[in-house]
Write a sequence for this structure.
């Protein structure tokens, strides 16, 4: 349909083949009708096809032209759906491709609600939060008998409270970045218009209240303080108030993410299990120190890498990220180098383990992850936003994989 509109903008749509200015007699063929003594010339198949295409194109142009005029006279409430019709008609997409064109059933409505919330919750961060808490909780396990009902209850309390706070943080960030996300992440519910601002506010408020409520009734001070500090940093990172919205400053933004992902998650949730669930004194074993140091590298990488595919929107709205200041390629390879260094240190730490099984698993595991990362990085097209975004999600998969290895370091 794009071609139709472009063609109509250049004047009359030509019915003639290139280089021809008139009909020729061989465009017509003689057809004999039973009631006619003489043959009558009618257009040939090729000419009929040309006429048919012309009529279809002109009809659509006529419909789109008058439909566009009609939008101006409709109430604002109907203009959004009318505009979608017009966009579909002029872009060549089927008119029924709009979800509203299908019959609304209870099941479809439920699926749409779940899908919107799934995207709103930023599932890669949800998975990362859940895995990290389970992993560092296992570091507090000293003997088989520790794997008990109180342990599972304590882990579940921590995961649920942290996930609710996670949704508050990512939701607040989306509320603060609606205009930016219309450029960088138009598929998010607030940017796409699936959620109103009021809906977003109600969701983040509800989840923050529920998170604090659960943290309070559990009675674990490490858990409560982890939630409280995460709340403060997440709010300062996103909300657009004087002296806040720290995401505007690349170094401060990276420190916020590092504080939550590397320090709070490792130390606070470990202490929640160690002191509140097991009732043991607070100690910081070697695997915990390693996890905190390694995840500090990883958190910095995530903080830097997440801005690489968002450079267009960040430039427009004045977000001075390192990617905007230094360029995509330089930041990309800085991130890869930091991760490779972290894997190198992990291999050395694993090699010092006094347990053979731990030494083999951690050295081999980190060597494999480092190799996979390097191969993947070499294949990324830095001119493609889709390729960079895909690599960013791959970095999160490496993040998940590390939390499977951390409990095995002894």
């Amino acid at each position: 349909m794009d071609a139709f509109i472009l063609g109509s903008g250049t004047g009359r749509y030509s019915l003639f083949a290139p280089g021809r200015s008139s009909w020729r007699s061989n465009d017509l063929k003689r057809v004999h009708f039973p009631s006619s003594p003489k043959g009558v010339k009618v257009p040939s198949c090729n000419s009929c096809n040309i006429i048919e295409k012309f009529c279809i194109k002109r009809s659509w142009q006529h419909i789109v032209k008058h439909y566009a005029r009609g939008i101006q006279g409709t109430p604002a409430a109907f203009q959004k759906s009318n505009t979608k019709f017009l966009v579909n008609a002029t872009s060549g997409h089927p008119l029924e491709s709009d979800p509203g064109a299908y019959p609304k059933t209870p099941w479809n409505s439920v699926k749409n609600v779940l899908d919107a919330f799934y995207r709103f919750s930023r599932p890669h961060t949800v998975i990362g939060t859940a895995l990290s808490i389970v992993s560092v909780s296992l570091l507090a396990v000293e003997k088989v008998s520790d794997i008990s009902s109180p342990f599972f209850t304590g882990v579940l309390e921590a995961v649920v409270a942290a996930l609710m706070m996670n949704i508050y943080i990512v939701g607040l960030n989306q509320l603060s970045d609606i205009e930016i996300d219309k450029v960088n992440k138009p598929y998010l519910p607030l940017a796409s218009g699936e959620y109103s601002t009021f809906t977003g506010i109600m969701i983040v408020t509800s989840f923050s209240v529920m998170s604090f409520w659960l943290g309070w009734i559990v009675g674990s001070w490490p858990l409560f303080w982890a939630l409280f500090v995460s709340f403060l940093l997440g709010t300062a990172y996103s909300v657009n108030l004087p002296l806040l919205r720290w995401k505007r400053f690349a170094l401060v933004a990276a420190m916020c993410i590092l504080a939550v992902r590397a320090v709070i998650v490792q130390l606070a949730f470990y202490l929640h299990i160690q002191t509140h669930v097991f009732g043991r004194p607070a100690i910081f074993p070697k695997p915990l120190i390693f996890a905190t140091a390694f995840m500090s590298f990883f958190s910095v990488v995530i903080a830097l890498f997440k801005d690489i595919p968002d450079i267009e929107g960040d430039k427009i709205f004045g977000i001075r990220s390192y990617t905007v200041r230094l360029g995509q390629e330089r930041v990309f390879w800085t991130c890869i180098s930091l991760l490779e260094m972290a894997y190198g240190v992990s291999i050395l730490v694993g090699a010092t383990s006094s347990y053979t099984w731990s030494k083999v698993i951690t050295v081999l595991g980190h060597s494999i992850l480092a190799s996979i990362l390097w191969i993947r990085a070499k294949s990324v097209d830095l001119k493609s936003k889709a390729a960079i975004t895909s690599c960013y999600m791959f970095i999160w998969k490496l993040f998940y994989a590390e939390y499977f290895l951390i409990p095995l370091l002894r």
